[in-house]
Design goal:
Strand content: 5-15%
Shape: elongated
Number of domains: 1
Number of strands: 2
Strand order of the largest sheet: 1-2
Radius of gyration: 23 Å
Number of helices: 6
Structural class: mainly alpha
Length: 181
């Protein structure tokens, strides 16, 4: 077997993808930690070996933010776009991990789609492109999750304040003080 640029880049890609999974697990942990005080990172990371399952759980968790605020909406859009990118890259990776392999006599390696039997395109330029895409998605995820958590906290605080004011016998006058015309 020959180790060439493509094989080397593919090895690097596998390491980058492991980092993607770690970032996704960390984002999931950060979102859940707000409502599950005893949650540990390892509890979340156990599902990280099943990227698709972790991504589904993460997307479910994001639904909490659908009605939070306009500010959260911008961050939510960016996070969902990052999820889409990570899923697309995961699909590309899975086709190449769960494939048929033929090692030629000259040491070259050919990957075949396990369903169709057609050769799969894989080269260092393509791998580099996927690495850059998924790294950008990780940066977006890391930057926007704290914004989402802040917006969720603000929304919860506002709801608590509103409920407290509504319970008060002079709620109407207090609301006028807080929100004059």
């Amino acid at each position: 077997m020959t180790v060439n640029d493509t094989v080397a880049w593919y090895g690097i890609f596998q390491v980058v993808f492991a980092d993607v999974v770690e970032h996704l697990a960390k984002a999931m942990y950060d979102l859940r930690k707000e409502k599950e005080q005893d949650l540990t990172f390892n509890t979340v990371f156990e599902d990280a070996f099943k990227f698709k399952k972790l991504m589904c759980q993460f997307r479910d968790e994001l639904r909490r933010f659908d009605k939070v605020s306009a500010q959260a909406s911008d961050s939510l859009h960016i996070v969902r776009a990052a999820c889409q990118t990570m899923s697309e890259v995961a699909n590309w990776r899975n086709e190449r991990i769960h494939c048929r392999v033929k090692i030629r006599r000259d040491g070259g390696i050919v990957l075949y789609d396990s369903r169709t039997g057609y050769p799969l395109k894989v080269n260092s330029a393509q791998i580099t492109k996927y690495i850059h895409r998924v790294q950008r998605a990780m940066v977006d995820l890391e930057a926007e999750i704290p914004n989402l958590i802040r917006e969720l906290k603000r929304s919860e605080d506002f709801e608590k304040l509103h409920a407290k004011l509504a319970e008060s016998p002079d709620a109407e006058s207090k609301m006028r003080e807080l929100f004059p015309d």
